[in-house]
Amino acid sequence: MTLLVTNIGELRTHADAGTLADAALVIDGERIAWIGSNADAPAADGCFDAAGRAVLPGWVDSHTHLVFAGDRSAEFAARMAGEAYAAGGIQATVDATRAASDDELREHGRRLRDEGGRGGTTTIEAKTGYGLDVASEARLARVSAEVADVVTFLGAHLVPSGVHRRDYLDLVTGPMLAAVTPYASFIDVFCERGAFTVDEAREVLEAGRAAGLKLKVHGNQLGHSGGVALAVELGATSVDHVNHLDAADIDALAGSRVVATILPGADLSTRERLAPARELADAGVRLAIASNANPGTSFTTSMPFCIATAVLQHRLSLDEALAAATTGGAAALGLDGTPDAVGRIAVGGLASFQVLRAPSAAHIPYRPGVDLTAAVYRRGARLR
Amino acid sequence: MTLLVTNIGELRTHADAGTLADAALVIDGERIAWIGSNADAPAADGCFDAAGRAVLPGWVDSHTHLVFAGDRSAEFAARMAGEAYAAGGIQATVDATRAASDDELREHGRRLRDEGGRGGTTTIEAKTGYGLDVASEARLARVSAEVADVVTFLGAHLVPSGVHRRDYLDLVTGPMLAAVTPYASFIDVFCERGAFTVDEAREVLEAGRAAGLKLKVHGNQLGHSGGVALAVELGATSVDHVNHLDAADIDALAGSRVVATILPGADLSTRERLAPARELADAGVRLAIASNANPGTSFTTSMPFCIATAVLQHRLSLDEALAAATTGGAAALGLDGTPDAVGRIAVGGLASFQVLRAPSAAHIPYRPGVDLTAAVYRRGARLR
Fold first, then answer.
1. Which CATH code for domain B59-332?
2. How far apart are the first and last CA of chain B?
3. B54-57 and B353-356 strand pairing
4. What pLDDT sits at residue A287?
5. Per the CB < 8 Å rule, is B369 touching A306?
6. Is the pLDDT of residue B88 over 70?
7. Do B302 and A369 lie within an 8 Å CB cutoff?
8. Segment (H or E) for A278
9. What is the pLDDT of residue A263?
């Protein structure tokens, strides 16, 4: 079954490729079969008329906490009334998540994933970290693998109440890690005051690496936690949040292959200092933008909102923000550089793309809050 | 024809009324016939099951420039690349608007109005100001009256290129004013460096008042323009933008009945200093929130985005922001205090309300960028 997408006003195939006007593409099953000028478009079994609108890759949302139960709108309201964000709110979600059934967790996770999909997200990561005991983390990893494309083990999200620190670290690096490895491809750690120290984080990440997992770090969100330096030291795939950086952190990132993931939804929802995305981009650091969808600090699945915020407030250019939300996210998930790479439109590659209700991707920050997603295809199947 | 809206998880009837749980309401034609406890709900011809979700009044978007032609995404991109906003960009829209047909203008205006409607807007204002000659302003006023609920005459948006200042002021206060009064109920002036001085603005507003129009001012957006003081001096219904205020401005507003309208979309899109909404609210100034939908400085129709921004970044409380987007907007349009008042749900009043895809209105800032509008009724007719 082939489908011709015709009359594309602005086609962005890849972050570095610029834009094509008057373009068309053909998909065959779950892959892209042809890209070219609208005038040269071949026949196909079906036709989607883009009517002059923009087509670009589906978003790669490389940082979410998608599978959970419960609501933290009261905590949100308290924060909006002036309370500071503290990592401890996570425990509330842990309690609700442990109490939920598998079906409830799966259904809720799918609903959020599909909500993101309607906004153009075609690849999504999900972290554990609301279980915090062996059985609960294993369950979250298993359910997350049913809901998301990539699973990250975040047992080291918080030391749960009532458990001794050393005992918990032994769990995370031992039986809990063993229980999640069938489902997870990354290990992550919340390296922050109130969560885990640099030395604890190093121990967790090294255990994960020994078990075959790639590394991520929640770093430098609430202060100079040392998480960025640790991510560079260990060659992590990404370090996420990066709100509090000094010149040495930026230099270290620029001299490494670590992707710095900015989370605009969390920056706004925690009223935290904005991540210095402009300075990172100027230094040549590879960036990703992700939603950080979670009930505490960023309860949004909207990548267009995050991209608009990154342009309007973090002062990325449109091209930088689009790259960060596509190929940058792919790099942050290790899903780049192969024929199945995500975040790009290429002949032979996966047919995961979106059609905007706008002539140009510039409308995403130009028209913030407006639903500009007209159609979304994921591996050739229409999501919206 | 009556309709019962049942199982309302959180009903907000009016800014000062708090919330009702387990509520229901009945509409009869275009009016609200009954409000009460879900358990006591009477029978009706039809039923809408709100399924525990929140119901609140439709938004009153009291400041837009809805009817225009042309695109300014290139100017937007230049601003995102570091150029400052200057009032002169308006001329580009004037040129495109003059070149468009009535049908094109009407169609485009309706599309934007309906886009706002899908986000919960049930009352909308539209300004002229992209015509800037007698015939073009009269045409914009006429088309705006077909598209919007309230029309504001903004001939004094900019002195158009090629016209002498004094000659233009004579036009605005003379034949142009006469040509628009059949359609407009407000007169407005862009009192700002690069646009009109305080003395010019006073002349324009006094002419409008003499012609029976109520007054609005675009004031203190780009600097200490004197627009706020003028609005208080003349007893304007509202002064809009209010980014640059000193203590005397805030005191003057607090001692008046002038509504201060904040425009979060413009604050972000121009990267202007945020309006000091928190300080205004603390001083007891009545606030409105509006989209300022226009192609130059705020090309959004999304009131939920503006409300989320007002909470997350302007630091209004949820209740303050919801009030500003409903009863505050009604006050800014002089549509309060009568049986046909907008921005509230009251027995005997207009049935203009929305059902959220969320259990609480707190989800609007808690889940920014997510489409949370499930259904919208305007005067009893379902818009979405």
1. 3.20.20.140
2. 19
3. antiparallel
4. 98
5. yes
6. no
7. yes
8. helix A277-282
9. 98
Residue A7 zone, left/alpha/beta (φ > 0; ψ -120 to 50; rest): left
User: How many A-B residue pairs are in contact by the CB < 8 A criterion?
Assistant: 95
d(CA B323, CA A338): 52
**For B165-224, how does the pLDDT look when each residue is reduced to its tens digit (9 = 90+)?**
999 999 999 999 999 999 999 999 999 998 999 999 999 999 999 999 999 999 999 999
8 A C-beta contact, residue B85 and residue B272: yes
Taking the C-alpha atoms of residue A57 and residue A47, their distance in angstroms, rounded to an integer, is 19
Determine the CATH number of domain B2-58+343-382: 2.30.40.10
Q: Is B251 helix (H, G, I), strand (E, B) or coil?
A: helix
CB neighbours (10 Å) of residue A207?
19
Strands (E), A9-98: 10-11, 23-28, 31-37, 46-49, 54-57, 59-61
Are β-strands B287-289 and B353-356 bridged in parallel, bridged antiparallel, or unpaired? unpaired
Both tokens assigned to A137: 């983390």
Q: Which of A271, A312, A370 sits opposite B115 (nearest CB)?
A: A370
Contact status, residue A215 vs residue A257, Cβ threshold 8 Å: no
**CATH 3.20.20.140 residue ranges for chain A:** 59-332
Report pLDDT for B170: 98
Please tell me chain A's helix, strand, coil percentages from 3-state DSSP, rounded to the nearest 5.
Answer: 35, 25, 40
- What backbone phi and psi angles, to 5 degrees, belong to A241? 95, -70
Residue A380 has what pLDDT?
97
Token digits of residue B342: 């907008």
Q: Name every chain B residue with its beta carbon within 8 A of the beta carbon of A118.
A: 371
Q: What is the pLDDT of residue A19?
A: 93
State whether residue A285 is helix, strand or coil: coil
Strands B150-156 and A150-156: unpaired
- Return the residue matching tokens 């959020």: A112
Q: Which residue of A has its CA nearest to B309?
A: A268
d(CA A9, CA B325): 36
| High-pLDDT (> 90) share of chain B, % | 91
CA angle at residue A71 from A66 to A74, to 5 degrees? 135
Q: Which residues of chain A have pLDDT under 50?
A: none
Mean pLDDT over the full length of chain B:
96
CA proximity to B72, closest of A359, A51, A7:
A359
- Residue B173's SS3 state is coil
Contact in structure between B136 and B98 (CB atoms under 8 Å) = yes
State the Cα angle at A160 between A158 and A161, rounded to 5°: 130
Q: Which residues pair with A24 in a beta bridge?
A: A36
In terms of C-beta density within 10 A (0-12 exposed, 13-18 middle, 19 or more buried), how is residue A91 classed?
middle
Check B80 against A365: CB less than 8 A apart: yes
**Rounded Cα distance, B286 and B243, in Å:** 15
**Taking residues B262-269, what's their average pLDDT?**
97
What are phi and psi for residue A370, nearest 5 degrees? -90, 135
Identify the band that residue B73 occupies on the pLDDT scale cut at 50, 70 and 90. Answer: confident
